[in-house]
Design a protein that fits this description.
The structure holds two protein chains of two kinds. Chain A is mainly alpha-helical. Chain A contains 13 helices and no strands. In chain A, 39% of the residues are buried. Chain B is mostly helical. Chain B has 14 helices and no strands. Chain B is globular. Classes of the chains: A mainly alpha, B mainly alpha. The interface between A and B is large, with 115 and 113 residues.
Chain lengths: 312, 282
């Protein structure tokens, strides 16, 4: 099986006992295998397959709560695709994803490289810098919402007292700063994940490589470029792709910080679908959104899972 | 060959930027955390009227208010019930499934492993509307059961995948030996494999519990009765209440974070091992 751990070289399945008749034992394994899988399969059928089939069906109807569904063909899809709000939300989702991931990559790499050096208090800082990522997401975003409060938030008091601004900024309620503020809050929450992942990867790069490079007169930048980056290639790729999935589909940061406002400046597709389906009860349209997104995202997920199941 | 002197110089050269990076990151991480903690121990007067960076009279009054006035203990209890129950169910089912996929040979197991990983990576924000339709059909809205049940949709794939990684790292010879000594397949799993995989079980349980404790979207969609809400939705709902709520909210946020942070630091070595086995390496 392709998904074995690299260190262990034993065969994946166990061999049948020498004295046992081969066929019977194998049949018993097959039966036991499916029996043990049965609870998980049933739950997944009810919680994933059935909902998606329902959603596909509802997407072709004008279903709302308390009303019978009526077949309306592709009208929901046409409505969603042609809506300028959906276009805006999709664009915001993409901007949010690309900018946030670039920042997480830079900060995460800086964190990993710095914490890979030996210095006093390193173990404490390793744990401390992880706190934003260990905190519940809703706690992180509510903390930021209060931190950036235009009237009483610490950010405005501090910037004013440092002489950097002369009047309080409305970080989350002015269209120019809302999306950048949400992105910074999200980066704060999730860059430590990049940091720990890269740090774990760094510790797998043999130090002999750096020593050899030092003997050859390589400078720090050359070592980073020719040893560190190639050594981290796989970790970087997996973390980037995982984070792309999570960031593109993020709901909490936007919902809790701005609710998509002001005037859709931070509206992303997940919050828009929530508004359509749960707030306005237009379930047909709301169901069309995941049905539209799933094929694209699904292909991406298949690519990531291939990478994560790789042997080396 | 570099002289000891230039070696020391190069250490200083990497040391100074590193120190600067660490300082900046520490500051970036600390300032919002400071804002949260300091707000939770201030009186409303010090939060809203005369702002000070450090509270003149640190007080626990905000904790008292959130617990007494907002009946926050009820929500903490709801979160505890939901997270514990769904963790126990998910881990039990996942251990059996992971054992089947890793140790038993039958056609289709590679596909099952792939599908489980696929589902683990499929975000909840893509399936909550379909799930809402189903929960609605089953008449489960406004029940804790709806959360316990639907949380299995992300905790089972995650726990199964994590346990698969653990089981693969344990040589099957141990169990084969036990079977030669007269154990059954399942007996060998319970008596030999599970004790060795205990750190994996701890990691899977902690991650699953934390995931359920932190879950926001499904809890927001399925439950709107304040006495049935879990902690995240209750706290978010307090924002739109009256104006002077942030002291209470930050106190509640700290109460909500304590179990998660405590679990994480108590079991750090298991969690890091779990992270290495699960999230980073395949």
């Amino acid at each position: 099986m392709a998904t074995g751990s690299s260190q262990v070289t034993v065969p994946a399945g166990s061999r049948p006992l020498p004295s046992a008749p081969r066929g019977t034992l194998h049949q018993r394994e097959v039966g036991l295998g499916w029996l043990l899988l049965m609870p998980v399969l049933i739950v997944m059928l009810i919680l994933v397959v059935w909902p998606f089939m329902t959603a596909v069906w509802i997407a072709f109807t004008n279903k709302s709560i308390g009303r019978e569904a009526e077949w309306i063909g592709l009208a929901n899809f046409a409505q969603v695709v042609s809506s300028p709000r959906f276009g805006r939300a999709l664009a915001n989702s993409l901007i949010f994803t690309v900018v946030a991931i670039a920042m997480k990559l830079v900060l995460g790499m800086a964190m990993a490289l710095a914490l890979n050096q030996a210095f006093f208090g390193r173990n404490f800082l390793r744990a401390y810098l992880l706190i934003p990522w260990v905190l519940p997401g809703f706690v992180a975003y509510m903390t930021w919402r209060w931190f950036l409060d235009p009237l009483q938030g610490v950010a405005n008091y501090a910037l004013t007292d440092l002489g950097l601004i002369s009047f309080p900024l409305e970080f989350l309620s002015s269209p120019a700063t809302a999306l950048p503020s949400v992105i910074v809050a999200h980066v704060w929450r999730s860059f430590p994940f990049f940091g720990v992942a890269f740090l774990a990867g760094l510790q797998n790069i043999p130090s002999e490589q750096y020593e050899a490079a030092a003997v050859d007169g390589a400078n720090a930048w050359q070592k980073f470029l020719y040893i560190t980056i190639p050594g981290l290639r796989h970790v970087i790729l997996v973390v980037l792709m995982l984070s792309t999935i999570w960031t593109f589909n993020a709901f909490e940061p936007i919902y809790l910080l701005t609710g998509g406002g002001p005037a859709d400046a931070t509206m992303v597709y997940t919050v828009l679908a929530y508004e359509m389906g749960i707030v306005n009860m237009r379930l047909g349209e709301a169901s069309a959104v995941p049905v539209l997104i799933l094929p694209v995202l699904g292909m991406f997920i298949v690519a990531v899972s291939g990478l994560m199941s790789r042997d080396d | 060959m570099m002289s000891p002197m230039s070696l020391r110089m190069s250490r200083v050269a990497t040391g100074v930027p590193s120190a600067l990076v660490v300082l900046c990151l520490t500051l970036f991480v600390s300032v919002p955390l400071y804002s949260m903690v300091v707000t939770a121990v201030k009186t409303d007067r010090e939060i809203y009227d005369d702002f000070t960076y450090l509270p003149k009279q640190p007080t626990l009054v905000q904790f008292e208010r959130v617990i007494v006035r907002e009946r926050f203990m009820v929500n903490l209890r709801n979160s505890l019930i939901v997270a514990t129950t769904s963790t126990v169910v998910a881990v039990l089912m996942s251990v059996l499934a992971a054992f089947a996929v890793v140790r038993l040979r039958f056609t289709g197991r590679i596909w099952i492993a792939r599908i489980i990983l696929f589902k683990y990576l499929l975000p909840t924000s893509l399936i909550y509307i379909p799930l809402f339709l189903v929960v609605n059909n089953l008449g489960l809205t406004n029940t804790l059961q709806s959360l316990i049940f639907t949380y299995l949709s992300f905790s089972i794939p995650f726990a199964t995948w994590l346990m698969m990684g653990y089981f693969r790292g344990i040589p099957p010879e141990l169990e084969e030996q036990a079977m030669i000594d007269g154990c059954s397949r399942l007996g060998a799993m319970v008596r030999v494999l599970l004790p060795v995989a205990a750190p994996g079980l701890v990691a899977a349980s902690i991650f699953t519990f934390t995931g359920a404790w932190n879950e926001f979207l499904l809890a927001l969609v399925f439950i709107n009765r304040p006495d049935l809400q879990t902690v995240p939705v209750k706290l978010a709902g307090m924002i739109v209440g009256d104006q002077y709520v942030w002291g209470m909210i930050m106190a509640g946020a700290i109460l909500a974070s304590v179990p998660v942070i405590a679990l994480y630091f108590l079991a750090q070595r298991f969690v890091v091992a779990g992270l290495a086995a699960g999230a980073v390496k395949g």
